[in-house]
Amino acid sequence: MIIKNLQLKNFRNYREVKFEYFDGINVISGENAQGKTNSAEAIFYLCTGYSPRATRDKQVIFYGEEKAVINAEAVSRFGKVDVEMSFFTDKNKEIKVNGVPVRKIGELLGNLNSVFFNPGELKLVQESPEDRRRFMDISLSQLSRNYFYALQKYKKILVQRNNLLKDPDREMILETLPIWDAQFVEVGAKIIAERNKFLEKLAPFARSAHSFITADREELDVSGDYKYVGSEEEIAMQLSEEVKEKREKDIELGYTTVGPHRDDIKIKTNGIDVRVYGSQGQQRTAALSLKLAETEIFKDRFGEAPVLILDDAMSELDSSRRERLIERVKNIQTIITCTEPEVIPGYEKYNNIRICDGKIKN
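Predicted structure:
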């Protein structure tokens, strides 16, 4: 997957600009608050349909304007693809793929693929299980629309089940709960099975990437809870049994205590929990290794690498790790943002784009 260009109009601090990207490494540099991350955000928006930064779509519209448009032209092994997204102050965003309107986010997924890292992604190793589930869900949704639709369905079932558990009418709960539980188990088992497969593939890739970046000084271990294992059918049986066992507890608490919404990922460096004991540099390296592993999974699935976006990835890394990171990604299209291009080893050889106040500086 190669993005040839990105056009922004009234998006964040950009009035109108067009980025031209090389197939290899692209360095987007500029002082803070000039728009580097905004350009990276736009690509991720076009890949996934949502922003890692904005809570509402209309927040990305240039102040005082009523509409913003972002567009990317790309080439994949399947041919050319053009994705456009328009944002409005008074209605929902509109999406077009090759000029054809897309009504659902699920239909957008898979047209452009990217792996995104910015400092906020450190939550993957630093903070709650929710952030690690989000990592899996974003990746798996790009890899499989079926997973995305199953996840959406599961979230709705979970809300309905939790609402039911809060009802004061216990008799009605006991009568209705088995209906919701059957759906809960069926869809939940699909999600757990796919996450298990994902982590089993991710772990060796992450270990290899981490070993390379740290020059074999550190070993990264990634694993899931694996509370439910086996085929999807076997997982459904295990989940069903636990749902029944925890039914009284769930009614008492008023929410669902088991299921894929409780999943987590264990991340260790040299056998130590990196979330608790890792330095900033170790945590950043671990997060980057997971992202590099993610690119390998995409290559296995689609036969080509996704676009790798590294937004402010070099801070907290020593010069050795920077050099080895660049060596690792030089053969895939990578977009790197930074304040000064000099922090990128060999930056003179790459496509350098300087940003100043929402404009490309020649």
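Summary: The chain has a mean pLDDT of 95.
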